[in-house]
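Saturday, quiet lab. Running sequence design on the structure tokens for the scaffold JK sent over.
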């Protein structure tokens, strides 16, 4: 394990110096057929980084992540609560500590879900996406984000308009790359083709994916591989269920549910190979044929450290993957 982030005592204004060994324990993987390398593990700021969390706590987690080689931070307009506050927190961390490292960071944001009242604060219109991106840039104090996503498809807006907004964001310099999230196979196929036609290739797709939620294996992953589009899984720990902490909670409740049987089976499997359940879940989504990167959430520095350690553990063998399939075949957790 590397030395701890040097940010001084709680609340003091000591200058942050990034760990000089920060690129030693992380692996970087190419996003599809692009020039962009993503850290195998990225950090998401959906929860635990909003206005209700003490700033120093969020700051320490982001800086520890960067010190462990996590160069990619995933945000969205409405992460908080309240909406917008995770971007504000991240903006403060940038200003205080990370702006000297801006060119070592890959920052993403999104628009597509509820953000402000009225007809122009939700879904997929160009009106909403571009106004939202401008607001996100202001909150984070950035001139551009690295990736701007359509957060979800909008059944009532022509896909040409939503993809046109992403193309515009890139051409106007507000974003370097375009991405899509939560698009199912057919929607993704069309979106990728429109973006290609517009001359702004889709860099990445961000779907939900974990051992207990494998929907992307039915066509979407193949499509992304064929099209040279990267993939970044959100909720790779099943929103905290694929962790020893959750299994212990079920144990304490003396749960007899089938969820408990599957999760404790996975936890024992992980223990037998010297891993925690969260580490096994990450080894699994990042296995050969899996996704480019996994975006974890975290509420404590120790969780980030534990999760990053998965990258120095042995990859899953074919036999182990078969055994896991058999344990997971009893799962209805999803
Ligand atoms: N595009 C989308 O629509 C979308 C949707 C959801 C998420 N996302 C992105 O994906 C990111 C991650 O999502 P997620 O929070 O659902 O991911 P997750 O990694 O599946 O779950 C994260 C939670 O697991 C627990 N955890 C993490 N590591 C642990 C460990 N080692 N031991 C015990 N518990 C551990 C923590 O729960 P506690 O807080 O209880 O400690 C943490 O908040 C988000 O921040 C966001 O950037 C995108």
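Result came back. Writing it out in full:
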């Amino acid at each position: 394990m590397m030395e701890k982030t040097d940010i001084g005592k709680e609340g003091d204004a000591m200058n942050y110096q990034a760990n000089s060994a920060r690129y030693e324990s992380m692996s970087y993987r190419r996003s599809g057929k692009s020039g962009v390398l993503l850290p195998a593990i990225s950090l998401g700021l959906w929860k635990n980084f909003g206005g209700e969390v003490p700033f120093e706590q969020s700051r320490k987690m982001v800086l520890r992540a960067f010190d462990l080689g996590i160069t990619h931070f995933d945000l969205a307009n409405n992460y908080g609560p309240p909406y917008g506050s995770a971007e504000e927190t991240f903006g403060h961390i940038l200003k205080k500590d990370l702006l000297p490292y801006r060119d070592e960071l890959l920052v993403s944001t999104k628009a597509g879900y509820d953000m402000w009242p009225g007809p122009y604060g939700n879904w997929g219109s160009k009106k909403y996406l571009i106004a939202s991106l401008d607001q996100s840039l202001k909150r984070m104090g950035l001139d551009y984000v690295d990736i701007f996503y359509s957060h979800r498809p909008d059944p009532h807006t022509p896909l040409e308009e939503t993809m046109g907004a992403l193309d515009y964001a890139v051409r106007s310099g507000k974003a370097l790359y375009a991405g899509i999230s939560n698009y199912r196979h057919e929607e993704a196929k069309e979106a990728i083709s429109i973006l290609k036609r517009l001359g702004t290739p889709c860099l990445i797709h961000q779907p939900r994916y974990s051992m207990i939620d494998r929907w992307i294996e039915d066509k979407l992953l193949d499509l992304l591989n064929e099209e040279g589009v990267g993939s970044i899984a959100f909720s790779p720990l099943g929103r905290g269920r694929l962790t020893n902490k959750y299994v212990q909670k079920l144990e304490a409740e003396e749960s007899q549910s089938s969820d408990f049987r599957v999760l404790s089976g996975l936890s024992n499997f992980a223990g037998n190979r010297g891993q925690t359940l969260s580490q096994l879940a990450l080894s699994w989504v990042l296995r050969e044929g899996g996704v480019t990167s996994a975006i974890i959430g975290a509420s404590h520095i120790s969780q980030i450290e534990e999760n990053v350690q998965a990258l120095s553990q042995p990859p899953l063998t074919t036999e182990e993957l078969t055994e896991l399939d058999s344990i997971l075949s009893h799962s209805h957790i999803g």
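Notes for JK: Residues 8-13 have pLDDT under 50 and may be disordered. The pocket of NAP is lined by residues 44-48, 74, 151, 181-182, 206, 234-240, 243, 245, 278, 295-299, 303, 306-307 (CB under 6 Å). Ask whether to fix the surface positions before the next round.
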